[in-house]
Amino acid sequence: MSRSLVLEDFAGRVGQTFALQEQGLEEFPLTLTEAKPLRATWSKPGTRPPFSLIFLGINPFILPQRLYKFDLDGVGLVDIFLVPVGKDAKGVSYQAVFN
């Protein structure tokens, strides 16, 4: 990918389900449940404002934290570092932070 991802790439996609584009994870959908800006306290002027994404997976298997490939309409294939941050009756939540 030739450009940095920004919050606007995801803000209109809350509620959208994404399938990970990874070998062996063809049936592992993740739904984007939150896309929000983060405080830019430490950001340098002229750099991408930081933001956070939260995804929910209904699969009870917990993915380890690492880079995963997503296919974003209008953007293409991107790598996003996911960290599992919680598990409840709805499923497993994962966060991606861009700073």
Shape: globular
Strand and helix order = HEEEEEE
Secondary structure tally, helices = 1
Q: What does the main sheet amount to?
A: 6 strands, antiparallel
Fold blueprint:
Layout: H1 8-11, E1 17-19, E2 29-37, E3 51-57, E4 66-72, E5 76-88, E6 91-98
Antiparallel strand pairs: 1-2, 2-3, 3-6, 4-5, 5-6
How would you describe the overall organization of this protein?
There is one protein chain. This protein is mainly beta and 99 residues long. The protein contains one helix and six strands. It has a six-stranded antiparallel sheet, with no helix packed on it. Strand 5 and strand 6 (91-98) form a beta hairpin. The two termini are 17 Å apart. 12% of the residues are buried.
List keywords for this structure.
mainly beta, 99 residues, 6-stranded antiparallel β-sheet, 4% helix, globular
Please give a quick description of this structure:
It contains 1 helix and 6 strands, in the order H-E-E-E-E-E-E.
